[in-house]
Design a protein that fits this description.
Layout (H helix, E strand, L loop, with lengths): L12 H27 L4 H8 L2 H34 L5 H7 L2 H4 L2 H12 L6 H4 L10 H26 L2 H9 L4 H29 L3 H7 L9 H10 L3 H35 L1
Helix pairs in contact: 1-13, 3-8, 3-10, 6-8, 6-11, 8-10, 8-11, 9-10, 10-13, 12-13
């Protein structure tokens, strides 16, 4: 009996991997390598002097700290929003579902201007918050608000499909065996969605680290107070300090890579743990 080779619609492995590596090299590897190469124009002492100045360290602290907290808040409330959209039927559900994607489509500058108008001293929200001693616009809190706004869709859209695929029979079986709703969520649902939740957290965190347009309007950009690292890089580029700008960029690049590597390892651990359960 003769056997026929099945032909794939896509090209063979060698050709496909060649195109993949070429595309990744042009889009990702070569630009990133250029940053490292440009930073070598500085000696190690000059590089170290640039990246540990007090102004730069404060920008790191604000950028990574606000990004991490915003991603963590988005992981919590993004899970809640995804749960409501999947598990409940209510009037206006499709409208809310569509609004989740608004930060994806909205230009970041528009988002920044809108948030500034809302949280400024005379804004809709700011006029009530400032008398209480809560100043949002032109403070680090404004940075956190902007990063939370742009990161929410990453968590919701990552967790939502996983929640939709969970079989309700498992929850019914757990209830029949005497498990409470909290026990069912903790022992059955949460381990299933944990890898997706961590993926959404990683995406929101990565997006927040590199965010620029929506932040500069509401942050106030005061050095050592509300100045983010991407803005500091832009400032050095405007001063024609290309080596200094790339030095700071390299630090952000390496730090982001390490943090995302840790998160990916945690995701792998979560998937492996679910497979063993």
């Amino acid at each position: 009996m003769s056997q026929f080779k099945q032909h794939s619609v896509l090209p063979g492995f060698n050709l496909a991997i060649g195109f993949t590596l070429l595309y990744l090299s042009l889009v990702v590897l070569i630009p990133l390598s250029a940053a490292f190469i440009r930073a070598t124009e500085l000696t190690w002492s000059e590089f170290w002097t640039v990246v540990i100045t007090l102004r730069v360290l404060d920008s790191y602290r604000l950028t990574f700290g606000a990004s991490f907290i915003a991603a963590l808040i988005n992981a919590i409330f993004g899970l809640l929003v995804a749960w409501i959209l999947v598990r409940y039927q209510f009037t206006g559900k499709k409208i809310i579902d569509a609004l989740i994607d608004l930060p994806f489509a909205l230009p970041t500058a528009v988002a920044g201007i809108t948030l500034t108008a809302l949280y400024a001293g005379n804004g809709w929200f700011g006029q009530f918050l400032e008398p209480l001693g809560i100043k949002v616009a032109y403070t680090p809190i404004g940075v956190f608000v902007a990063l939370t706004f742009i990161g929410l869709p990453f968590v919701v859209r990552t967790v939502q499909p996983v929640l939709e695929d969970i079989e309700t029979e498992l929850e019914e079986a757990a209830a029949m065996l005497g498990a409470s709703r909290l026990q069912t969520f903790v022992r059955i649902i949460f381990p299933t969605i944990l890898p997706a939740l961590m993926t959404g957290f990683a995406l929101a965190f990565a997006r927040a680290i590199g965010e620029y347009g929506s932040v500069i309007f509401i942050a106030g950009n005061m050095p050592m107070v509300s100045e983010i690292t991407p803005l500091l890089i832009i400032t050095k580029l405007e001063q024609y300090d290309y080596a200094g700008a790339t030095a700071i960029a390299v630090v952000m690049l390496v730090t982001s890579f390490v943090l995302l590597l840790i998160i990916n390892l945690l995701q792998w651990w979560g998937r492996r743990r679910n497979a063993l359960i």
